[in-house]
Amino acid sequence: MTSTYVPLESTKIATNHQRAWAKSLQQQITSGATYAFVNADTPHELFHHMGLPIVTNQWWSAIIAAKQLSEYYFDYMETLGFHDRLARYSSLPLIAELEGDRERQPWGGLPKPSILCARQSADDHQKIFSLWAEKTGAPLFLFSTPAVPDPHPDWWRMGRSDWETLYGGDRLDLMVDEFKELIAQLEELTGRPFDHEGFASYMEAINEQERIYEDVSEILATAPRSPIRISEQIPNAMIPQWHRGSEWALSHARHFRDELHERVKAGTAVVEEERIRMMWIGAGLWFDTSFYSAFEESHGAVFAWSMYLPFAADGYIREIKGDPLRALAARVSAMNEQLHQPPWINAWMVEQAKKYRIDVALLLIPEHDRFSGHGSLFAKKALEEAGVRVIEVWSDMVDQRQWNREEMTARVSTVLDAVLAEKGV
Amino acid sequence: MAHASSLQSKGAAGTLLDRAFEARDRYEPVAPLPRVGIFGNGFPEILVAAAGGLPVHLSMGRLSSTADIDEVIEPFVDEEGRIFLNRLMNGEFDDVEGIIFARDDAPALIAYQYATEWVRQGRAPKAVPPLFLWNLVHTQTPAVERFNAVQAEKLFGFLERIGLRRPDDETIAEASAAESRRREALKRLEAAGVSGATAMRWRNAGRFMPAAEHADLLNAALADAEKVENKSLRIGLIGSPLASPASYDVFERYGTIVCDWQPWGAVWPRPGNDKTTLADILRAAAADPSCPRVSPTTAFRQALIEAVVNARCELVLCQLAPTDDTFGWEIPALASELESRGIAFVNLGFREPDHETWHARAAALISAKLGA
């Protein structure tokens, strides 16, 4: 049933670029260059625009997990006296730092960052980053995170231009003020002034990049059969996202879109006889990404959707309206919340499932990363009411100790068998 | 004085405080005031009192039966949030004018979001009262001060919408006087030599009655309270919210709880409640070091250690709700800091649903530490 899957050229380009970037960054920072260690939902744009390299906590976490090191570090975490129900995804780099053996870590570890930055979106982020600051002595910049009291469900529509209404003027005022505080710190750190005019152009470039991803999402959603695996969607969306607004990122986004377009035009598909379309809800299963292709041959079932690609457009395109810092606040001030809190998560999942013609959703529920797990059962209920079968995956994105591939494969297969029977296949 | 006629007999005030604690949000205070529900720690109750309402905490109730909303509550949602949401959807809070949720208290934000979404989807009973998110940020910068002032304005608008008056300088000063009397009475409670269990019950009884009534009852109760046997070991209690007298009884087999620094302990009423102006209330509330989200991030641990040291604790007991994802990050540093000061530290770990098992384990851990 499965044709020999040929990876995209774009994927190789993206991963090569990231490898080269990582190597260059490693050389820079080990030679004493400054860098920032930041959470994924912070305004990377400010660091990029100031020319200060960043390492993203969740990206670094995924790298450590992909090196099959998470088990070692989480066992070590417990020996330190941290209990086993604390967050994993956002803490894995901290534990590696506390463990201290840099040779064990990817790249030979990270040196002391010049600044740490997190948003208080999850209650534990400030604790994790505070411990990092205590260990390294690096200053910590924390963004306040008041909640949105009256969240409109269709955030992905309103967020583009009516963001003042969606996120609230008082919240945006606060975030812009805190941006200015961070900018002042970055100016001091880099010895360079913040170029406000250039920042507007930079924000426009990011919007342009994300609009390309909007096209890509449209191609993926409307293609008769899924043309690529999500294990290729993710790097082609996320690696440019870590470098958003750069010439390379824009150029890569275009190349990816064009290659995908050609592939669809040629009728190329992940599986010749695609019978079931699935979505993977939640962060990637970083230690076992081959799971995403596990049902292609047995059931003609393909994972057609993961959040990273469609979120590029829905989560990032923010009309500038002559105020790039405020537009950035609109992008950042509820970035992660949109993926985890009702009504945002349930409404978006249903919209995306319909758009991508999804039959079955696998819903990752990381019970020890509560912020990422909240709202899961609202999403499940909404999807089921929309006619999508939902399989709960109580696991963790980086802790393989909780993952039993055989058992999960059996559970998913049972559901897929039933779906095929219903479809009369 | 409230309850004047009923407090003639010895021990009557203490009995009333115990009854109020036991009844929780079902307690009926002497003065019938419009009831405003509070969910979560960190909201300055004085602002509801200044609006002519009675702030009633809804986070300590018990669950009698589940409602449909239970199916969307994940097992890692805090127990107080689960109980509240089920009770809310069972119509148990029909008698409150509105409910205020403290954003910076973990269970409260989730409770607010799940409740509002259930209502938005049209699945809630019609009787759900108006809900309000108190978005106060726990940091002290000019930007945050401006933001918090806006939140106070939003709160005042909400209070007016639910039929209360807009707090002003005069009503805030009046409410502050009552809160100050309560604070004085609570100071006497701390110094009275009663058991930690009694102090916890009598303090938390005040979450369900006006500050003045609470102060009166405390003063009356303390006048004839019996001091507990002076046990030599001074105990500090920290960790997740705990309001179980049975657990206190187990801990106090080994000494007396003299520093109760868990969220349902002596950190309530939170800072700001005895201030006389809105600006001072907001400033004090924003700097509350007992809020786990306070920034600078070191303030929380520093304040905890300071409280334990000032109370001359010899043993600190840490206990956790099974859903903890925040306090646990503090434990290794706390243990190390306390032990370095010669204060014994016992991490009792997660509380278990079976109280007997949990209490037996806690007792064994404490005994082992003390016997070591």
From TrEMBL, chain A:
Keywords in alphabetical order: Iron, Iron-sulfur, Metal-binding
Xref: InterPro entries: FldB/FldC_alpha/beta
UniProt cross-references to Pfam families, sorted A to Z: HGD-D
Superkingdom of the organism of origin: Bacteria
Keyword Aminoacyl-tRNA synthetase: no
GO molecular function: iron-sulfur cluster binding; metal ion binding
Cytoplasm keyword on record: no
Family under the similarity heading: Belongs to the FldB/FldC dehydratase alpha/beta subunit family.
Annotated PANTHER family: 2-HYDROXYGLUTARYL-COA DEHYDRATASE, D-COMPONENT-RELATED, SUBUNIT OF OXYGEN-SENSITIVE 2-HYDROXYISOCAPROYL-COA DEHYDRATASE
Protein name from the UniProt record: 2-hydroxyglutaryl-CoA dehydratase
UniProtKB/TrEMBL annotation, chain B:
Pfam families: HGD-D
InterPro entries in the cross-refs: FldB/FldC_alpha/beta
Record protein name field: Uncharacterized protein
Species of the source: Nitratireductor aestuarii
Lineage of producing organism: Bacteria, Pseudomonadati, Pseudomonadota, Alphaproteobacteria, Hyphomicrobiales
